[in-house]
Design goal:
Elements lengths: L26 H19 L3 H26 L8 E2 L6 E2 L1 E12 L2 E12 L4 E3 L1 H5 L10 H13 L2 H11 L6 H17 L3 H8 L9 E13 L3 E12 L3 E2 L3 E2 L3 E5 L3 H14 L7 E6 L3 H10 L4 E4 L1 H16 L6 H12 L5 H10 L6 H16 L6 H6 L7 H15 L8 H17 L4 H9 L37
Parallel strand pairs: 6-11, 11-12
Antiparallel strand pairs: 1-2, 3-4, 4-5, 6-7, 7-10, 8-9
Helix pairs in contact: 4-5, 4-6, 5-6, 6-16, 6-17, 7-8, 7-16, 7-17, 10-11, 10-13, 12-13, 15-16
Bound molecules: zinc ion (ZN).
Length: 489
Amino acid sequence: MSRRRIPKKTLSGNAPHDGTKFGDLSDAELVRQFAEELARRRGRAGATLDDIETMAEQLGRATEEELQAASIEALGPEDGTSKPCPKCGGLVPVKARNRVRHFMTLAGELRLSRNYHHCKKCQLGFYPRDRELNLPEEGEVSDAMEKRILDFGMNGAFAEAAQRWDVHYSVPISDNLVRRVVDRVGRRRENAHSRLALQQAALPSPLHPPKWLIVAPDGSMLLTREHGWREAKVGVVARGESVIPDEAVIEPRYVAVLGNQDEFRAALKAALDAELADDVMRIVWIGDGARENWTLAEDLCPFAIQILDFIHAVQNAMACGKKLLGENDPGLADWEQRIRQLIDANSPDAAIRELLDCMDFCTTDEHFTALDTLVRYYRTNDKRMRYTEFRETGLPIGSGIVESAHKHVLQSRMKQAGQRWSVLRGRRMVELRALYRTAGPRRFHWAIREALKTPAAHQHRQLPNGPRRRRQSQTPSRVSPLGRLSASN
Ligand SMILES: [Zn+2]
């Protein structure tokens, strides 16, 4: 392995003379004085690396703070003339002079005084200097600081986030500040005009339509203050070529809502649009068997191949087995093995036959109901249970993708011990987490601002059921696993 040399910076021998505390010292002189101070302390107590590091950090911070204050100072006072309104462009005179704003930056606290203008025509107040410096429109922290606090707040409970912050930075912050930052960014996300813009800012659309797409929606329960347990819906949209079986998905899109089916539909549609789903020839929709799931599939992707998630097909059989045999019956393991064998076929017929044979041994109504429910479930979904065929064509049969999505999109942040969410904050966090997981930590904060730049689209009439491409036969072709390669072009 080659070791790259980091070019050494040479310290300047010129003092800036900018009137600040260290302004009459050149960089080289500053460092020399620092080393002398260390040597003095060493003489007294014997400085450890810890001491040296802390001192270097403190000195660095003091310099940063000075530098920041001096740079703001250097801007000079505002000229007090009329300034263009950001909305209508008309010139607007100063309404109030020298309004002070304090805020925290990574280089320390900053005090800024600036002029306030108010456009009567637009009923809009603005601070030209804030805009010039690109300060966030509201709040008490700089953009760079907001981005970092947000990252902590997205990954842990607010109190823990504040503590972790203190490990990394020397300016302490409160739990409440973390909460306010997350709230503010949550509101900003809500102000974005389109979910599609958010999806595309989080993860750019592919240049060409992917060969195939997997869509997998599912539900997960969250504890709310107002209504107890409420279902959060999570969906994954992944490019087929970026799924590594049984391992991972590269760059999936996530959507999540703590709300009704219409909101979920809108969120999922945006993710599909961002993946150019209308031009994708094969879409695979994996679901848990809930009716509303297939309704959504027929609505959004009418030509998708629907697959009943294998894991859910087994779980439902286990629920029935427990009713028949008892919760902890040792026979349940055999029951599971047998069901797995039977349904891993091209239809659930064999499983249904064997389940019907069990009817003879039923002694209570509860047993009958349990068996009947399972048989109905398999019959309703029989076209979606052609597992041998799906497997041979290289299609996924389990929604491991969405199961793990629940864990790392929602549960790791929102289902920690003792956590209860107000519906308002819960809704915000659910959507933020999905976007965070789609965009990744580096892009997340920027993506929300970026999406805000997209203007509101003109409301145009939507054609009913804009088809997600051509009709697919329910039987995937055995010749060409990717369906259209041989057929088109
Ligand atoms: Zn105006």
